[in-house]
Here is the input.
Amino acid sequence: MFSLMSSSHNACQRAAQLFITIATVLVIGKVVTQVPVMSELEVAGVFKAAAIVWFLARLAALILFYFFACYVIEAIPARGGALSFAKGIAEPLTALLIVITVQALFWELLSPFVDSLGKTIYHSSAIILIVAVSIWFVLRAYRHATYLVDTVAKLAGVITGLIPRQKHDCPQCGAQIAADARFCNKCGYQAREANACAACGAAVQDQKYCQNCGATLGNSTAADN
Here is the structure.
């Protein structure tokens, strides 16, 4: 158990280090692109030096993001509930984000060199890959959905428990009892009759007449109305 906690802690530390590194790479890359000379230099007569630097910074950040995601997934405890659901979908979600970002990133690099046919082929390939990873994501979400359902059910139970039940005073001893209680839990006074028609036995609510046979109900149910 302690080894698992230590492993999770180490994964969290590595993830935090990588997150800071990603942010640093992007900030430095953006700062470098603001240097005036970077907007004047050209590479291969097509790209500005600033564009190349910003491309490399985003590519490096994307590679670091992959390792960051791996450590985050490792750090998520598989204890059931929403965390297990998150751990289950984290891998395909990471792949989907990377695929979407990579295809957009490399298109910036390739777009000056491809014609309309190349553009169609590239975008079609990207769409097929994105759809394939999306299907993987949906299947994984379906497989782990039971964890999320259990969490929602538990949360609903907690919220229901926080809602105060309606109460009233017992006519005999004055103690507070639930509005739907048949007996006082302090003195045993019968606060409500059984919710059944005395004539036909049909289930009834707080009403004056039975909806099944029309009989007049007892004093307690009638009085409640």
Notes: The two ends are 60 Å apart (CA to CA). Residues 2-33 form the longest helix (32 residues).
